[in-house]
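hey so u asked for the seq, here:
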Amino acid sequence: MLNIENIRNDFPILAREVHGKPLVYFDNGATTQKPQAVLDRIMHAYTLENSNIHRGVHYLSGVATEAHEAARQRVADFIGAESKDEILFTRGTTESINLVARTLADQICHEGDEILISTMEHHSNIVPWQMACERTGAVLRVAPINEKGELILSEFEALLNERTKIVSIAHVSNVLGTVNPVADIIRMAHNHGAKVLIDGAQAIAHIPVNVVDLDADFYAFSGHKVYAPNGIGVLYGKRALLDSMPPFMGGGEMIETVRFEKTTYNKLPYKYEAGTPDYVGSCALAIALDYISTIGMQSIADYEHHLLHYATQKIKEIDGVRIIGEAQEKSGVLSFVVDGVHPYDIGMMLDKLGIAIRTGHHCAEPLIDHFGIPGTARASFAFYNTIEEIDYFIASLKRVLMILR
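ran it, structure tokens below
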């Protein structure tokens, strides 16, 4: 088991109070808190290295450029990519998915082709593909799930055919916590000639990821989900695909030469990184990855599973509570509804007791509609959470429900 007291001391925000109560932060699925090492790296960058990278010949630019490219290598190592040139820095998972939808989909999809997603996707993994279908004439197909919140693999495979060009699936559902069998999904899709993007936003901080072992064509995630700053994200793509795709945006950095008659484009990865890069974000992301690697991804996964199992058993003891998402393979997300009580009211009253949870449709309206509910209350755990916090959450939830019912 992890040394949770030492870990919690690394996160300054966990020591604060909310409404006069100690903060219990169970909204990690939305964004994670930042360890002091990440905060220190941000301050270091702005106070000692601040410069525009890649373009300067002066000392600060050289130092910042070296740090940015070292961060790219760190990301590549963390997810097992073969080359740092396959790592593109974006603003987050949403931009990463839009990049692929705007480049690969526009390139390979035509009238009557198909793009396959699942019922459990986040809006960021639905809307870009709908827009791609509108541009190309392709058709969006949606793979069903069962009542436990698991992808029905037989029906997913049945939807694959020679017209399927792209498959885009969440590694872990942000509402259900379901861990999808992405290696099997990728293999099935490749057997039909489709390219596969995996939305790793909810997986990257919680379970080990190796993109080569998965054979993913693309893998996307956000820094703020993995203890790094907001506004920095990653898109991994296989080199051959990235080489063949057109640029996403035009401007500085992504060019080789610019003439009024014609512009030629830069090599990977810079071809997809128009404008001034977020050097501070990339370096802070590298430190966040170092931090969780020191703890150990498998140790984190095991501990968070322990938290989830404990919280699940405790919440099941409360009359009228129904868990949404009970997949056999599940990450640290506990979504629930209560008979006769709106999730928003639960969230508002728990907040007054210092407990931060998420309520609503969680940017997954089609999934919420599938279950025929207005939304859920969602507690999502990280490795700095404790059993004692869960006990307080359960006791507070009982207290809140006594008032609301």
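The chain has two domains: 4-30+296-404, 39-293. The first strand starts at residue 17 and ends at 18.
lmk if thats what u needed
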